[in-house]
From TrEMBL:
It comes from Fontibacillus panacisegetis. This is UDP-N-acetylmuramoylalanine--D-glutamate ligase. It catalyses: UDP-N-acetyl-alpha-D-muramoyl-L-alanine + D-glutamate + ATP = UDP-N-acetyl-alpha-D-muramoyl-L-alanyl-D-glutamate + ADP + phosphate + H(+). GO terms for biological process: cell division; cell wall organization; peptidoglycan biosynthetic process; regulation of cell shape. The lineage of its organism: Bacteria, Bacillati, Bacillota, Bacilli, Bacillales. NCBIfam families: murD (TIGR01087). The gene is murD. Residues 117-307 form the Mur ligase central domain. SUPFAM superfamilies: MurCD N-terminal domain, MurD-like peptide ligases, catalytic domain, MurD-like peptide ligases, peptide-binding domain.
Length: 474
């Protein structure tokens, strides 16, 4: 169907009562659509239902009724996490009904140009950083999407002189059709979310939809150091603006000079530079001046710089937000220093690569707390980092035995396996006490699970908050 001209009077089903579902339901109702919201959770688990019903929106909880999806439905907007195998989604596809995520609806409503950011790791930090950079450049950013504010909520208030800065997951992008951001940013691609996508091909294809509808007048910011990102280049129509830590780009792009070399970290005082369309070089900032620690945050900074320049920021405006931005909650977040031991909350590390990057960012001896939802990995990719970076480990959750096995292969002598206690909070508190008992002054205790949280917690945010509270009460 056409958007948004033909929403008026059309029957639309919204699947899922999460924040994005509530937001898109309100938006579609406001535009005159006949909206039904459906959630398989029982009514008492859907506190948002009463708010929507008060507006005149129909809400059906407790399952997916047989007649929910029928030939009269013109559009289905699903929560990104709902699989395509779910009965109402499968029925809609069988009937030829468009099934999209909130991103698609927001795109058609948004008057502002969009910067879309995706990747396996670093999305939230980079998205927030771009917002800070555009703000410093006077370009009126609105930060939304997977980062917190639903895109539809933000799109309704966005004006043509704003920039919509949107964090986007592969789940969200998979459900897009016409979505075409003015600036598209692909940070990296690692093996993750295969329980949802089934194959890496589907996962990468979902990420690549970020570029699918871009034109030459748009900009594609890609990680030149990531081989999967590089493989997508021949299929991208937009103007490329690559970023690299390992190559001094001879085309327009953002890079580190001199380049990072294998096994060489911070022994040279490097600079981040921008080569413009005329191939002239502009100094942005020294790497040592970036406030966030870790090589992976240098990579995030390069991506944020490239996106901000593509949106019209000047090179001179970017140094201040690069040197003052202290990061995002649950992303290598400093918690406290107690008795000479520093505690970091990296609960957002829901895959191995994120944990490897966090370990690489810290130079002190590390006692690691890891483990969580089992998605089938053997976690052997953690072995080199375990051998080089950590002195002890405490494991919990469904993957505790798998990660403990990697620690044994790494030759660690201090491996503590914490069994699930009376509650998830108590289990994590016990893990923290065990980790603290293994420290000496100058050490770091790092929560970086390498796993999703859903075996024990509702979200990585809940896991991180409980960890921080436990640190403060040690």
């Amino acid at each position: 169907m056409n958007h948004p001209e033909q929403y008026l009077g059309q029957q639309i089903v919204v699947l899922g009562l999460a924040k994005s579902g509530v937001g898109v339901a309100k938006t579609l109702h406001h535009l005159g659509a006949v909206v039904t919201v459906n959630d398989k959770k029982d009514r008492e688990q859907c506190p948002e239902a009463s708010e929507l019903e008060a507006l005149g929106i129909s809400v059906v909880c407790g399952g997916h009724p047989e007649g929910l999806i029928h030939s009269g439905v013109k559009l289905v907007v699903k929560n990104p996490g709902i699989p395509y195998s779910a009965p109402p989604v499968a029925k809609a596809l069988e009937l030829g009904i468009d099934v999209v995520t909130e991103v698609e609806v927001a795109y058609h409503l948004c008057k502002a140009p969009i910067i879309g950011i995706t990747g396996s790791n670093g999305k939230t930090t980079t998205t927030t950083w771009i917002g800070k950079m555009l703000e410093a450049a006077g370009l009126h950013p609105i930060v939304a999407g997977n980062i917190g504010t639903p895109l539809c909520d933000a799109a309704e208030s966005a004006q043509a002189d704003h920039w919509m800065v949107a964090e986007l997951s592969s789940f969200q992008l998979k459900g897009t059709e016409d979505f075409a951001p003015r600036v598209a940013v692909l940070l990296n691609v690692a093996e993750t979310h295969l329980d949802y996508h089934g194959t890496m091909e589907d996962y990468v294809g979902s990420k690549a939809k970020l570029f699918a509808n871009q034109q030459k007048t748009d900009t594609a910011v890609i990680n030149w150091d990531d081989p999967v990102c590089r493989e997508l280049v021949p299929h991208i129509e937009a103007t490329l603006l690559p970023f690299s830590m390992t190559e001094e780009l001879q085309v327009s792009g953002v890079f580190v000079q001199p380049s990072y070399l294998p096994g060489v970290e911070d022994d040279i005082d490097r600079s981040i530079v921008y080569r413009d369309q005329k191939l002239e070089l502009h100094h942005i900032v020294k790497v040592s001046e970036i406030a966030l620690p870790g090589r992976f945050n240098v990579e995030n900074a390069l991506a944020a710089i490239a996106a901000s320049l593509a949106a019209g920021a000047t090179p001179e405006s970017l140094a201040q937000p690069l040197s003052t931005f202290r990061g995002v909650e649950h992303r290598l977040e400093f918690v406290e220093n107690k008795h000479g031991v520093t505690y970091y909350n990296n609960s957002k590390a829901t895959n191995s690569k994120a944990t490897i990057m966090a370990l690489g960012a810290l130079n002190a001896p590390i006692v690691l707390i890891a483990g969580g939802l089992d998605r089938g990995s053997d976690y052997m990719e953690l072995l080199p980092s375990f051998e080089k970076k950590i002195k002890a480990i405490v494991v919990l959750g469904q993957t505790k035995e798998k990660i403990a096995n990697v620690a044994k292969l790494a030759g660690l002598s201090h491996i503590v396996v914490v069994d699930t206690g009376d509650s998830a909070a108590q289990t994590l508190q016990t893990a923290l006490k065990e980790a603290s008992s293994l420290t000496d002054p100058g050490d770091v205790v790092l929560l970086s699970p390498a796993c999703a949280s859903w075996d024990m917690f509702d979200s990585y945010e809940e896991r991180g908050r409980i960890f921080k509270e436990a640190v403060h009460t040690l």
